[in-house]
Amino acid sequence: MGRRTDGDELGGSDLMCGEVYISQIFQNAELGQKQGIREKYIGEDWAPAQYRVQLPPPHGLDASDMNAKGRTIRPNQFPESIAVWNEDAFAKRVKDIWWAGPFLTVNQRIADVISQFDLGSGGLVPVPLFKADLETPWPEKHYYINYGGPKDTLVPEESKKVDFWFEIPDTAKKMYQLAPYLEDGDVALSRKALVGPDLWVEKAFKPMLFLNGQVVDALVAAKINVDLDLKQCRIVGELA
């Protein structure tokens, strides 16, 4: 059964090695709303101190696109600095996992959890986080998630509620997206999903976060205060 990782489990037995979950946290726009922050990219001015979302500069957009696809990017491709211009909003809106601009970010408590697992060629990149004066360091540490490379393990013909999205012209690779009302077992992955990074994005999917069951188990134990909107994937076939 799917699990809500907001500290409460929706039944089921303890997680076993070999389980994989899909999270729809990328679609949770509330995590990025009215956080009272602004960002600065290398070579650019600070974004204005306002709630209205401002697009990153072109090189920031390129980096965010690569990150959303699960590719490893250089640490200096993340925002150079983040500043909290409204501390009340930041305290109210920012949880264990949040959006620093277009980049998924975790606090120290969750960083301590996921750093125990295989993050591939990526890892956790410290966020240079400051108070409103743009100089005083923020007292708590936070980290950008730098993914360790995408996997290509989706088995669309064995999946339910997975719709064809489009075909990439240069490669003819077919891309897929989720249909509404996803349930446990609707997404099928090959056994290759059990190899490599424990936190990743699938190549053939509209950006979605996938997690090894042991990572989910650890986040549940840590009582993470964000609902990752998890559904268990079905593992099919043999490991080639």
Estimated radius of gyration = 18 Å
Helix content: 10-25%
User: Given the C-alpha coordinates, what overall shape results?
Assistant: globular
Counted up, domains total: 2
Q: What about the largest sheet?
A: 4 strands, antiparallel
Task: Provide the low-confidence segments as ranges.
Answer: 3-16
Residue-averaged pLDDT: 91
Work out the strand percent: 15-25%
Strand order of the largest sheet: 12-13-1-14
Order of helices and strands: EEHEHEEHEEEEEEEEHEE
Helical run tally: 4
Q: What's the number of extended β-strand segments? A: 15
**First CA to last CA: what distance?**
28 Å
Any key phrases for this structure?
240 residues; single chain; globular; 25% strand; 4-stranded antiparallel beta sheet; alpha+beta
Structure description:
This protein is α+β, with helices and mostly antiparallel strands. Helices cover 14% and strands 25% of the residues. The chain has 4 helices and 15 strands. It has helices at residues 58-68, 87-93, 108-114, 213-221; strands at 20-23, 37-40, 81-84, 97-100, 103-107, 123-126, 129-130, 142-146, 162-167, 174-178, 188-190, 199-201, 209-212, 230-232, 234-236. A hairpin with a 6-residue loop joins strand 9 (162-167) and strand 10. The chain starts with 19 loop residues before the first strand and ends with a strand. Residues 3-16 have low confidence and may be disordered.
